[in-house]
Amino acid sequence: ISTLHRAKALSRVLELWSGRWFVPVQVREEAGAWPTEGTKVTSILAELVGRHVLEILTLDPRVEGPLFATLTRTPGQGESATIAIACHRQYGAVLDDSAARQACDRLKPPLVWTGTEHLLRRAVSEHLLTSSEARAIWTATGILDPKRQVL
Predict the structure, then answer these.
(1) What's the rounded Cα separation, in Å, for the pair 121 and 123?
(2) 46 and 38 in contact (C-beta within 8 Å)?
(3) What pLDDT, in 10s, does the model give residues 95-119?
(4) What letter would DSSP give residue 107?
(5) What average pLDDT does the chain have?
(6) How far apart are CA 38 and CA 4, in angstroms?
(7) Which long-range CB contacts under 8 A does 35-38 form with residues at least 24 apart?
(8) What local confidence, expressed as pLDDT, does residue 35 receive?
(9) Model-level pTM greater than 0.90?
(10) Are 129 and 123 in contact (CB under 8 A)?
(11) Pairwise CA distance, residues 51 & 77, whole Å
(12) Is the per-residue pLDDT at 73 higher than 80?
């Protein structure tokens, strides 16, 4: 959420595919707490919910709570909730945080995750974005890791 918002492409990228994205309430709460962008991000998320592009999920404390509690020691609450929900509901996860990705890899079995760069590459391969559009969004994210590139 934060990466795509920083690139001013949150709605644009999430609306590329049919179906629905699932976002834990903890992610929405973290986004809402951003001092300068919180109100704007929560407004975008609410619009996406209203258009049935996105659904806000609540963590099931009995089933997902134990994993969530274990994970919050490393990644943040939003990432931990994403992983716990994805793991127990058999979803994939979109994560840009390296600690969260490592937490997914340590699970038995590992949780399948992807990152913003993978979403953008997929959008190009499916002809939903041009290469130059994907590169522009990627550049706007501000992620400078040379191991993570769009094209």
Answers:
(1) 5
(2) no
(3) 999 999 999 999 999 999 999 999 9
(4) S
(5) 94
(6) 14
(7) 37/5
(8) 94
(9) yes
(10) yes
(11) 26
(12) no
